[in-house]
Design a protein that fits this description.
With 89 residues, the chain is mainly alpha-helical. The longest helix has 22 residues. Helix content is 51%, strand content 0%. The radius of gyration is 23 Å and the shape is elongated. It has a domain of 49 residues. The chain is built from 4 helices and no strands.
Length: 89
């Protein structure tokens, strides 16, 4: 029973790592190209753990949005956000 749990855990880890590798953009793959990481994932348990902990950049900075030069005005957006309006209630 214990061996079956370990095998199942290894399979789940492998499947998660493969899908994570596929979903990760090339620019966020660290140290090696993605195709090399795919080969490394074939090493049982160690390959997926290497990918998860060292293979990709976890928190990439968000890309700036192009708003066309328009920025929302500072301050309240509606009467329920306006402190002067709420004070008069």
């Amino acid at each position: 029973m214990g061996k079956a749990v370990l095998v199942a855990l290894g399979v789940v880890l492998f499947v998660y790592a493969v899908f994570d590798l596929i979903a990760t953009p090339k620019a966020q793959a660290r140290l090696l190209p993605k195709i090399v990481w795919l080969v490394i994932l074939l090493v049982p348990v160690a390959g997926p753990l290497l990918w998860i902990f060292w293979g990709h950049i976890k928190d990439a900075p968000p890309k700036p949005r192009n708003t066309g030069g328009w920025t929302p005005p500072p301050g309240p957006r509606g009467p329920d956000d306006d402190p002067d309006y709420l004070r008069g209630l």
